[in-house]
Amino acid sequence: MTRAPLLGALAVLLLLAAAPATAQSDYQVVTLDNGGKIVGTVKWSGPLPHLARFPINKDPQVCDPDHNKTVDLERLLVGPQGGVANTVVYLQDITRGKAMDLPVPRRHLDQKHCRYEPHILLVPQNGVLQMKSSDATLHTLHMEGAASYNLPFPFQDRVIERPMPEAGLVTLRCNGGHTWMNAEMVVARNPYYAVTDESGHFELSDVPAGTYTLVAWHEGWGLVGVHPVFDVLTEKRVQRPLFTDPRTWEKKVTVTPNGSSEVDFTLSEK
User: Fold this and answer.
1) Among 28, 38, 116, 187, who pairs with 204 as Cys (CB 3.0-4.6 Å)?
2) Can you give the residue range of the structural domain that contains 231?
3) Backbone dihedral angles phi then psi of residue 269, each to the nearest 5 degrees
């Protein structure tokens, strides 16, 4: 095996090791009459790190309509009040509860102006991810991790679907030369997952009474370098950004019948 594929395989293993966890035993749907909820925020503390931008070096007429020449890699989004968006918050050790009700918008992926919308996807295990491209250029969506697909999108606005039978983390990249395109998808075995909004807020509802481990997972924001990859369209080597590993934070939370528990997380460079 050459050095480049070996590094790629190692990167996948590291991503899987740091992926948001799912319950080890089968999840059981039960009737809930007195479930509680968990609410909270994920906030940033301290100075914001310098976030490198990446050059837009392909299809600028589609990918760069505002002529910025570079793009934000969208790895760390902090709002005016310090809220951190795109953090996955979930219960680590729950095995029974409500039926699956993950947010529908995060099960639909669009490729628009050569970026993935949304940046963090959340799909139930055995559910379906719907995908399309709004761009008038060829994207090839490559997935690694709990799902493995390599899907070309030669036609604008044509929706395709793929099942997600295995729970875990899936990394999304473009194999069509738009190397800055990046996103993450969590395939969840139970419904107690949320993604923070622009204010850093999250909520988990209809939680059975009990004590749990609540985890905040972030994909990581550091850029550690670039990795040469082969562009199948131009048959040239291009540079793909390499990111630091995902990070997690844990807290214990007790949920009471019909009660509301508040848990806040603080993220920082340290």
Assistant:
1) 38
2) 3-267
3) -70, -25
Tens digit of each residue's pLDDT (9 = 90 or more) over 93-123: 899 999 999 999 999 999 999 999 999 999 9
Closest among 41, 25, 29 to 93, alpha carbons compared: 25
List helix spans (H) across the chain.
3-17, 60-63
How many domains are contained in the chain? 1
Q: CA 220, CA 249: separation in Å to the nearest integer?
A: 12
Q: Which residues, other chains included, contact 145 with Cβ-Cβ below 8 Å and sequence gap of 6+?
A: 12, 15, 16, 19, 168, 169, 170, 171
196-240 tens-digit pLDDT:
999 999 999 999 999 999 999 999 999 999 988 777 666 778 889
pLDDT given for residue 10 in this prediction: 44
CATH number at residue 63: 2.60.40.420
